[in-house]
Structures are given as structure tokens and as C-alpha cells.
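Escalated from tier 1: protoporphyrin IX containing FE holo job.
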Amino acid sequence: MPQEVERYRKPTRVLHWVHAGAFIVLFLTGLVLFVPGLGVIAQDSWSRVIHRIAAAIFIIAPLIYIPMNWKSTKEGVKSAFSWASSDIGWLKAAPRFYFLGDKSTMPPQGHMNTGQKMWWFLVIIFGTAFVITGLIMWFGKTTLAPSVLLWTVFLHDIAFIVTGVMLFVHIYLGVLHPLMTESWRAMAKGKISSEYAKTHHAKWYEEVTKGKGVES
Ligand code: HEM
Ligand code: HEM
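Tier 2 regenerated the structure:
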């Protein structure tokens, strides 16, 4: 039995942290535009310039990653859209698991548990929405009809509110929750102990030890 298993390969970890950095800058510079009282900070437009630089990084990073990591991209995207009865089991067991530490009713999970899949799903959907609406605002501000621009700002804001709230949940679960003891290590170093893999991702652990595990 291996002592440790690889959870995230280096290119995936680099993409995650580049994206996380760009996203936090986008969030903060977006907040300045979103909250009326903070508008004064955006007056000299420096926050708008930084927003566009971070947006370029947010868009370019996956464009470099995807062609170089085509197989794991395909498998990753597929997993975000594949739902099974074990996901219903996770939803039922999650409150007792996360609030009371009761592991007895939690069904065995794959490489991503249902909660992680939900975050990943949101990241794909709203990430795409951010890019489309953001580019429309960026390049169409002076040429588009005001009603079209208003809708674009509205959709950009919805994406901002949903992902902004869920990012706090993501950071809490990844870094602070007492049961997620090796989550941070998984994204920082790429590896987790076999024991942690068995208790948190039993279905995936079984595939890995049989040599059929997904690369991510
Ligand atoms: C990734 C591609 C993105 C692009 C191309 C983009 C582009 C833009 C542009 C051009 C504006 C208008 C700024 C202005 O008034 O001059 C804007 C506004 C804004 N962006 Fe983004 N953005 C992106 C991602 C994000 C992300 C990830 C967030 C937050 C997590 C975000 C939050 C906001 C907010 C809150 C506003 C203010 C909208 C308002 O006025 O109510 N953006 N963005
Ligand atoms: C400072 C901010 C962030 C921290 C500390 C953080 C931390 C982590 C950690 C520890 C994991 C590994 C979870 C595990 O496998 O056990 C992870 C996974 C992941 N992160 Fe982040 N993250 C941050 C920001 C972001 C942002 C901004 C995005 C999206 C734009 C993102 C998207 C993901 C995705 C899709 C995964 C894989 C699925 C999951 O585990 O939820 N993260 N993150």
C-alpha cells in the first residue's frame, strides 16, 4: 500500500494558484466598482486598469494550460457534469459530516466529492459568464445599446455575488475546517496520505491503487 498518493499534478496546482491570485484581485477591484461608497477609490481608474490586467491573466492562464493538459482537462470537465446517486447520498450526509463530524452515513467519494464538484461546476459556468460579459463591457462600452450594457453588468454582478460568497465557503473548507486536515497540503504540495485518501475519497483511492485513477 502506498504511503502517499498524488492528488494534483504541478501544472494543475500552478493554474489553481495563478487563477486564485487573479480572482482575488478581480474580486477586490470589482468590489470597488460595485459598492457605491467605494467608487471614490476607482475615480482615477487605477482599479479599472488593474481589473483588466487581472482579467487578462484569468483568461490567458487556462488557454496555456488546456492544450498542454488536454486529457486531465477533459476528465476534469466531465466530472463537473457527471452526477450519480452517491451525490444525493453526499447531500443527505453532508450536514452531519461537516457540522458534527459523523462519517458513518457519508457514501464513498470520487476524486472530487459532491461539494467540490459543485464548486468546480460554478467555477466553469460563472468563469465563462465573467469572461463573456467582461469582454463585452471592455470592448463594447461605447458602441453597445445601453440596455445591452445594463444586462451585461447585471450578469457580471450576479456572477460576482454567487462566486464571491462561495469563495469564502471554498477557502473555509480548504483551509480551516477541522476535518479537512490535508486539503491545503493537496493543493500546496500535490500529495495526500493514503489514510486521508481512504477516509475522504474512498472510491478514487480504490481506483488509484488499482492503477485506474484519474490524473488531475
Ligand atoms: C475574467 C474576465 C473579466 C473581465 C474581462 C472583466 C471585465 C470587467 C469590465 C470591463 C468591467 C467594467 C469596468 C468599468 O466600469 O470600467 C468590470 C466590472 C466589474 N467586474 Fe469584472 N471582469 C472579469 C472578471 C471579474 C471577476 C472574476 C469578478 C469578481 C469576482 C469581477 C467583478 C466585477 C465587478 C463587481 C464589476 C463592477 C460592475 C458594476 O459596475 O456593477 N469581474 N469587469
Ligand atoms: C486564496 C484562495 C484559495 C484557497 C486558499 C484555495 C484552496 C484550495 C484547496 C486547499 C484545494 C484542494 C481541495 C482538496 O482537494 O482537498 C482547492 C481546490 C480547488 N480550488 Fe481553490 N482555493 C482558493 C481560490 C480558488 C479560486 C479563486 C478558484 C476558482 C477560480 C478555485 C478553484 C478550485 C477548484 C475548482 C478546486 C478543485 C475542486 C475543489 O477541491 O473544490 N480556488 N482550493
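The longest strand covers residues 4-6.
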